[in-house]
From TrEMBL:
This is Cytoplasmic and mitochondrial histidine tRNA synthetase. Its EC number is 6.1.1.21. Keywords: Aminoacyl-tRNA synthetase, Ligase. It comes from Vermiconidia calcicola. It is an enzyme of class 6 (ligase).
Length: 576
C-alpha cells in the first residue's frame, strides 16, 4: 500500500512538474511571439510614418522668382514712374482675372499660341492663364458695350511657357504695364500720343535717349508681301518669319521661308530687298517713290498713315527716337495698323559670336527635338545667344473687340512695357557703376535715439512720444525696440538702413526743452557734424524743413533717381 502511495505521489509530482514546465514553456513562447508582434507593429508604424513624410525641394518653379530687398525697391520705382506717366495722360486703371476661358485666348497669338499655359480640366470651364493684357482688355470692352472710348492702364502678371533667361528678364511669370486708347478718333492722333508716352516713361527712368522705338505698319508690310507675290494664305506665317530678323541673319530667315514655309525662292529674294531697310523720314520718302508699292492699296494706305504719324511725332518732339524698320512684323495676329517695339543696348544677343551660336543652335534644335525640349527647361541667363529682347511693344488692333462682340467695332491702339526686362537692364546699369550710392530698402527719414550717462533709463517713453509726433506729421520714423539701447547700436541701425537724419534725446536737453537733430554721413570738419540743438516745440517743422532741403525720401533716389541711370550708363557705354 505504501509502495502504491509512494508511486502515486511520485507520479503526481512528475505530472505536476511536466505541467508547470509546459506552462512555462508555453508562456515563454507566447511572450516571444508577443514581442515579435509588438516589434513588427512598431516597425510598420515607423515605416508608415516615413511614408507620410514628404521630402520637399525648396525652389520656385522654372521661369519664376521671389522678389525682395533692393530688387523690390528698384521694381517699385519702375512701377511708380510708369504709373505717373499713365496718369499724366488721363488714364484710368482696370483689373481682369488672371485666367480666361481658353476659347477667349485661342487663335489670337499666331505661332506663339503654343506658349499659353492651359489649366487642368476641373470638370467645368476650360481655362488658360492670360498670355498678355491686351486680349482680356478687348474681351472686357466687348462685355461692357456702354464704354465706347477709354484711356486705360493695367499693371499685372502674365504667363508664358517660354525659355527662361532670368537675369535678362525673360521669365515665365512676369509683369506687364499696358496703356491702351480705345475709341474712334481722327487718324494717327492716339498712335502719336502712345509714342510720346513711351518716350516720357523711358526718360523718367533716366534712360536719356538710350533706346530706339522701331516702328512699322502692318498695311505696308502686307502690301510689300502682295507686291512680292506672297500667297494670301501665307501672309501671316511669312510675317512671323520676317519678325525674326532682329535675332537671326537674313540667310536664316530666307531659309525658313523657303524650306519650312514653302515660299518660292524668287519671292523670298524680292521680300529681302525691302525688309532689310531701315531709317527715318528719308526711308519713308523713298517708299513713297516706289511705284509698285504706291500701286498697292494696302501699302499706299499704310504709307499715308506713317506720313501723318511722323508729322505728329515731330510736333511732340519725339521723332528722333523713332526708326522705321521694315523687318518689324510683330507676330501677334490681332495687329492691323502701326506696330512698334522699344529696344536698347541689351536687347540683342551680346556679341556677333553669340549671334553665330544662336544660328547654330537653331539648326541643332531642329535635328534634335528632345534636346530642344530639355533646353527649354533650363535657365539661359548665361547664354550669349539670348538678349533681353524688346523692353516694350505694341500697336493698333482695330478688329479685336469685334471678334468677341460679333458686331461693335472699337478701334484700339496701345503699348505694353515689360517691367522685368526694364528691371534687368536698370539693375545691370546700376551694378556697372562702382560710384553709385547704395540703394535703400526702406524709406525711413528719421531714427529717434537716446543717450545718457550713469543711471540712464533709455528714455523709452520720450522716444515713443517723439516718434508719434513725427508719424502724426507724416514723417517716416523709427526707434529702437530696446528699453535701454546703447548709442552705437542705435547709430548702426540707422546707418545700415541709410536713414538720413537722427533725432537724439538726452536728459539735460529734454530738461531744457530741446533735442539734437543730426544729418547722417556728414564729413569730418563739417560745422553740423555733431548735430544741431533745436527746440522740441519746433521738432516737426525743423525735421520736415531739413528733409525738404535734402530732397525728400531717398529710398531709391540715392541709387536710381539720384544717378538717373545716366551715370551708370556711362560705364555701360564704355563696356558695351
Amino acid at each position: 500500500m505504501k509502495t502504491i502511495l509512494q508511486v502515486s505521489r511520485r507520479a503526481t509530482r512528475t505530472h505536476n512538474f511536466h505541467s508547470i514546465a509546459g506552462f512555462v514553456q508555453r508562456e515563454g513562447l507566447f511572450r516571444q511571439q508577443q514581442r515579435k508582434f509588438i516589434t513588427s507593429a512598431v516597425e510598420e508604424d515607423e515605416m508608415g510614418k516615413d511614408k507620410d513624410k514628404v521630402s520637399y525641394q525648396l525652389k520656385v518653379p522654372k521661369g519664376t522668382k521671389d522678389w525682395e530687398g533692393k530688387d523690390m525697391v528698384i521694381r517699385d520705382k519702375i512701377f511708380g514712374s510708369i504709373t505717373d506717366v499713365f496718369k499724366r495722360h488721363g488714364a484710368v486703371t482696370i483689373d481682369t482675372p488672371v485666367f480666361e476661358l481658353k476659347e477667349i485666348l485661342a487663335g489670337k497669338y499666331g505661332e506663339d499660341s503654343k506658349l499659353i499655359y492651359d489649366l487642368a480640366d476641373q470638370g467645368g470651364e476650360l481655362c488658360s492663364l492670360r498670355y498678355d493684357l491686351t486680349v482680356p482688355f478687348a474681351r472686357w470692352l466687348a462685355m461692357n458695350s456702354s464704354i465706347q472710348n477709354i484711356k486705360r492702364y493695367h499693371i499685372a502678371k502674365v504667363y508664358r511657357r517660354d525659355q527662361p533667361a532670368m537675369t535678362k528678364g525673360r521669365m515665365r511669370e512676369f509683369y506687364q504695364c499696358d496703356f491702351d486708347i480705345a475709341g474712334t478718333y481722327d487718324p494717327m492722333l492716339p498712335d502719336a500720343e502712345i509714342i510720346r508716352i513711351t518716350c516720357e516713361i523711358f526718360e523718367s527712368l533716366g534712360w536719356q535717349g538710350r533706346y530706339t522705338i522701331k516702328i512699322n505698319h502692318r498695311k505696308i508690310l502686307d502690301g510689300i508681301f502682295q507686291v512680292c507675290g506672297v500667297p494670301t494664305d501665307k501672309l501671316r506665317t511669312i510675317s512671323s518669319a520676317v519678325d525674326k530678323l532682329d535675332k537671326s541673319p537674313w540667310e536664316e530667315v530666307r531659309k525658313e521661308m523657303t524650306g519650312e514655309k514653302g515660299l518660292d525662292a524668287e519671292v523670298a529674294d524680292r521680300i529681302g530687298e525691302y525688309v532689310v531697310r531701315k531709317g527715318g523720314r528719308d526711308l519713308l520718302d523713298e517708299l513713297h517713290q516706289d511705284e509698285k508699292l504706291m500701286a498697292n492699296e494696302s501699302a499706299k494706305a499704310g504709307l499715308a498713315d506713317m506720313d501723318l504719324l511722323f508729322t505728329y511725332l515731330k510736333s511732340f518732339s519725339v521723332l528722333e527716337r523713332v526708326s522705321l524698320d521694315m523687318s518689324l512684323a510683330r507676330g501677334l495676329d490681332y495687329y492691323t495698323g502701326v506696330i512698334y517695339e522699344v529696344i536698347t543696348e541689351g536687347s540683342a544677343p551680346q556679341t556677333q559670336e553669340g549671334q553665330k551660336l544662336q544660328s547654330a543652335g537653331k539648326k541643332e534644335s531642329k535635328t534634335n527635338k528632345h534636346a530642344s525640349n530639355i533646353d527649354g527647361e533650363e535657365d539661359r541667363s548665361n547664354d550669349p545667344t539670348v538678349g533681353v529682347g524688346s523692353v516694350a511693344a505694341g500697336g493698333r488692333y482695330d478688329n479685336l473687340v469685334s471678334m468677341f462682340s460679333g458686331k461693335q467695332q472699337i478701334p484700339c491702339v496701345g503699348i505694353s512695357f515689360g517691367v522685368d526686362r526694364i528691371f534687368s537692364i536698370t539693375k545691370q546699369r546700376l551694378a556697372s557703376d562702382a560710384s553709385a550710392a547704395p540703394i535703400r530698402t526702406n524709406e525711413v527719414d528719421v531714427f529717434v535715439m537716446a543717450f545718457g550717462g550713469k543711471g540712464f533709463d533709455g528714455l523709452l517713453p520720450q522716444r515713443m512720444e517723439v516718434a508719434k509726433r513725427l508719424w502724426d506729421a507724416g514723417v517716416k520714423a523709427e526707434f529702437s525696440w530696446k528699453v535701454k539701447p546703447k548709442l552705437p547700436q542705435q547709430f548702426k541701425a540707422a546707418e545700415v538702413n541709410g536713414v538720413p537724419f537722427a533725432v537724439i534725446l538726452g536728459d539735460d536737453e529734454l530738461a531744457a526743452g530741446k533735442c539734437k537733430i543730426k544729418e547722417m554721413g556728414l564729413p569730418e570738419g563739417h560745422p553740423e557734424k555733431d548735430g544741431v540743438l533745436i527746440e522740441m516745440a519746433r521738432l516737426e517743422q525743423e525735421v520736415k524743413s531739413r528733409i525738404g532741403r535734402q530732397g525728400g525720401t531717398a529710398a531709391l533716389s540715392d541709387g536710381v533717381d539720384g544717378m538717373s541711370l545716366d551715370e551708370a550708363a556711362k560705364v555701360a557705354r564704355k563696356t558695351g
